[in-house]
Amino acid sequence: MTEDELVTAIAELTRREHSRVQVGIGDDAAVWQPSRSNRSVITTDALIENVHFSLEWMSREDAGWRAMAANASDVAAMGARPRLATVAFGVPPSGTPADVLECYRGMEACACASGIEIAGGDLTRAPVWTIAITAIGEVRPSNVKLRSGARPGDVLAVTGELGASRAGYLCLRGDVELPDGEADAAIRAHRRPVPRVAEGRWLGASSNVHAMMDCSDGLSTDLIRLLRASRAGAVIEDVPVAASARAAAHRLGIDANRFGLAGGEDFELIASVSPRAFSHLAARFKERFGRTLHRVGRIEADERVVVVNEGREEPLERSGWDHFA
Amino acid sequence: MTEDELVTAIAELTRREHSRVQVGIGDDAAVWQPSRSNRSVITTDALIENVHFSLEWMSREDAGWRAMAANASDVAAMGARPRLATVAFGVPPSGTPADVLECYRGMEACACASGIEIAGGDLTRAPVWTIAITAIGEVRPSNVKLRSGARPGDVLAVTGELGASRAGYLCLRGDVELPDGEADAAIRAHRRPVPRVAEGRWLGASSNVHAMMDCSDGLSTDLIRLLRASRAGAVIEDVPVAASARAAAHRLGIDANRFGLAGGEDFELIASVSPRAFSHLAARFKERFGRTLHRVGRIEADERVVVVNEGREEPLERSGWDHFA
User: Fold this and answer.
1) Which of A210, B221, B247, B313 has its CA 20 to 30 A from that of A96?
2) In this predicted model, what pLDDT tens digit does every residue of A122-138 receive, in sequence order?
3) Are A48 and B1 a contacting pair at CB < 8 A?
4) Pick from B83, B115, B142: which residue ends a domain?
């Protein structure tokens, strides 16, 4: 049973006849209705030492930042504005109060940068550092973006270059050596990924954006989830790969596109955009955020996913992370 | 540094100048305002294998139930109606998809019984079974009950007898032997504690209830938290102790009141009630729920806490659980 199959079984087990939850298990976040004109989104994401991060390669402050970033990113991917978070925090036997506060400083720094207030939490002993965060965001009903809205013909876009976090991870492990400048950029991308909070809200406000999700498990894995939810396929023509990731791929003798497709934890957003509106939207995006909204490919009615590599079409392999595969 | 001191340091670190959070770190749940006439409460609570429960003594289904019950109880203790939950779920290397679904069945059973919909979650590998749940509830602004509202002269009350969960735990560990009927009741109280969801909402709706919290770490520990928040003291005259807990205390040669005061995980609610209204409220409570609202003692202006035991006054020792002491 894969992780996605298990999630489907859980969704089945927890399904209710008359639900106030408009979007439940299976999207980046759940959507519910606290009052008529408001929608809240809620998401939860756990970071566990030696599963998601190692304190050999990052500080507790970095781990706290990353945990908060993952949640802020999920809220942003719904087109919502993150507002609140709670933290269920597990401290190993060796952990001191000073260690706990160090981790909280990282969470608070990312929360501040993302417009989130830490509203409460739970503190407990655990075998390893365990940071389970729940974030809540607000969104107008019309701005909610799901995974399921992609339409054939849409332009498939991402909000930034991919692969830097993975390159940073490989640098830290000593699996690859990069020149100082590139290594620093990659390591920073791994330790302090920036969730696309303002970008998500801005894209959410456009009716030309039909679907959105974040790219936390790698574009290849997450894109397949978006396409499955939309019952569509895609042709991937151009993967924007970060310079550090290109350099790492080159040194490892791996195709750079493949490296970019597989690398997770970049927290860029994937958006499916009306083809007629894309150029104008991308220009306004550039003006607003000083960054490129990269055209990656297009959505197809046919449910297969192909990558065009040097003129040849290859089926996309799901190469990202699966906790249960 | 104790757990409570660490929580205070975290509250300091995450404090904001202009906050939308009306009650933050330090109560059973945080309160925020999704729209003008609504308040939402949000709470998070993690259960970790071999810290909070052992699969030697309960099934995965029981562990799921208990994790959900702890969160439902925190929402109820604010006077709110639980509505939604998300689950960050950690699965050990030995855990199978069937094990995950078994645990989810327990969570869903308690969620159903508590009016909660499981709206989403996160699934990851972890060193041990880790269940971090966040629950959200709704409440009218006037019905929110905090820890800080207790007033000198108030009647201190609890919604049920204490100590059964601890007696069940001791039975399961083989530390005490009880007759079958009492052992069964105690073990059930330990494995499937019932959060006082309807009772919390009902007490929340009364303006004569000035403060409320749940009793998850033991009455002695939790009462001290309530009194500290209210800058008050208390005299405890009568602790309602469950029959199984009395029997266990007797066999262990411990004072039954002391056993009832120390035993956590009962999930009864502690309420501070206007003295003139108490008799009438308790009668209506009995009528409504078929249970006794027990008078435990009274709130005093003087900030010490004393237990009256066979006519003698003794200072209350904080005897419950502290993860960081």
Assistant:
1) B221
2) 999 999 999 999 999 99
3) no
4) B142
